[in-house]
Amino acid sequence: MADLSPNELRVLLAVESAGSFSGAAVALDMTQSAVSHAIRATERRIGAVLFERGRKGATPTAAGTSALGYARRVLRLLELMGAEARAAAGPEAGAVAAGPLRIAAFRSAALHLLPPALERLRARHPEIEPVVRVVRELGRGTAGEVLDGRADVGIATMGESSPVPDQLVGGVLREEEYALVHPAGHPAPRTLPLLDWAENCTSYTRQWWAAQDWIPRATVEAEDDGAVLSMVSAGLGMAIMPGLSLRGAPDTVAVTGLGPERPTRSVGYVTTPELARSAAVRALIRELRAS
After folding, report:
1. pTM (2 decimals)?
2. What angle do CA 59, 69, 279 make, to 5 degrees?
């Protein structure tokens, strides 16, 4: 297959972003026929149809979704090439880690794990510009954002049921316990209704839950852990929550341990093998490990 040029990759991304060849043509200041020709040529080289064409526009096929992820990652590496080359030339070149650093994190990690790490990162590397997106840790989650080229680093939950994808590398940053959370002063918190949210647990933790005959079915499933904590604070029920979700819990909430067989979860980072060697990503990982 002949090599694709960066401009051809940008045409792919423009069609996805606009949802049509005509919209991509406007965004790129090209004619629609030129965009159509570029996409057809790219499809011939790759050997797969990348977009379904229809009256409503252009939608990526499964092959297109895969190709778009690679396109974003390749273009990101081209963006970093100059800065990384200057950094490799040594201190005399005056090069430092600089530019945007795209981070995908689930809510409690973005609220409690990232801020101190980013504060230290900014102090040591003021030229780095963190861009944080909060992503629900469901389905492909934050790792999917990295695979799709939308993030350089993902803060992810890890474990047997959510391993690091084959195309990525990563490491564990912290292990945290689950605890019973209930209204402060309640005489029998285990009798309260259970509050939950979809992102809460891995399958391993759910198996632990299923083996506990005192845990009822959840009567309320909230949007996120913040809403659950607020409802517990208001006396509406109990919850089983991990450590990060309990940072800054109000005095109206009490936290009780679940004993020696309590479930835990691992929180870590994922990135691509190429980006793992970049100065900005390495700097962020150092600060995350120090948190």
Report:
1. 0.85
2. 150
- CATH of the domain spanning 96-174+267-289: 3.40.190.10
Tell me, which fold does domain 1-95 have in CATH? Answer: Arc Repressor Mutant, subunit A (1.10.10)
1-95 and 96-174+267-289 share one fold: no
**Cβ 148 vs Cβ 68: under 8 Å:** yes
Q: Which amino acid is at 214?
A: W
Place of tokens 């070149």: 93
On the CB side of 213, how many CA atoms lie within 13 Å of its CA? 0
Which H or E element spans position 273? none
- Check if CATH label 3.40.190.10 holds for domain 176-262: yes
Tell me if residue 5 falls in helix, strand or coil.
coil
In whole angstroms, what is the distance from residue 27 CA to residue 263 CA? 50
Pair of tokens at residue 17 = 């972003």
User: Average pLDDT for consecutive 10-residue bins of the chain (291 residues)?
Assistant: 86 96 95 95 94 92 94 92 73 65 96 96 93 92 94 89 83 93 94 89 73 86 91 94 92 93 91 93 94 78
